[in-house]
Amino acid sequence: YEGNRQRQTSVVTSTLVPVAEREFANPTAGHQAFFKTDHRLTDTQTLVARYRADKSTTVGNGIGGLSTKERGNNTRRLDQDIVANHTTIISSRALNELRFQVARRSTFSDTQGWSVDGMPEINRPSGRFGKAQNMPQGRDENRYQLVNNLSYSRGTHDMKAGIDVSLIRGVS
Fold it and tell me: What is the C-alpha separation between 120 and 140, in angstroms, rounded?
């Protein structure tokens, strides 16, 4: 497990915003959990499996510079993946590695606490006001990956050939 917390401040520089309303907290928190196991199946075969979850939350994204408080959003992201790796020693010269991965990324950004639905977006050289027109938004991405590599050594020559097939599906 690993945790990360950052405390930052975003500063609005638009002269149209009163000085007392220019600083906003912009904290970030992240949590990562990781589990891995190795298993020797035979003298020539090993299996490694791992699971990872990485969750982060950021409050007050989008605020700062000419972007005012109403441009703020809160973003939550969760990445998860499971990977299995099977290695086979075919001979003293040949090695095969087979890997399979299933992964998912979920991201969601909302404007709760920063702006309200229906608030217009106003962009001026002196500042960017109102709710960003692309908020709220969310997306899920699923990945399936199969990789197979064959390595062969002969004398001073090393050769490697393989295939990597990935299927990535995004869902909004």
Answer: 27
Question: Residue ranges of the alpha helices (H) in the chain?
Answer: none
3-state class (DSSP) for residue 27: coil
Name the β-bridge partners of 65.
12
Question: What's residue 171's pLDDT?
Answer: 82
Nearest to 93 by CA among 160, 138, 31: 160
- Residue by residue, DSSP assigns 141-160 as EEEEEEEEEEEEEETTEEEE
Which residue carries 């606490």 as its tokens?
Answer: 113
The two structure tokens encoding residue 85:
């790796």
pLDDT digits (tens, 9 = 90+) for 63-93: 999 999 999 999 999 999 999 999 999 999 9
Burial class (CB in 10 A: 0-12, 13-18, 19+), 62: buried
Cα–Cα distance for residue pair 151/164, rounded to 1 Å: 15
Q: Are 132 and 119 in contact (CB under 8 A)?
A: no
Distance CA 76, CA 48 (A): 30
**Local structure of 64: helix, strand or coil:** strand
Tokens of 8: 């930052």
Provide the whole-model pTM.
0.78
The C-alpha angle with vertex 29 and arms to 27 and 34, in degrees rounded to 5, equals 165
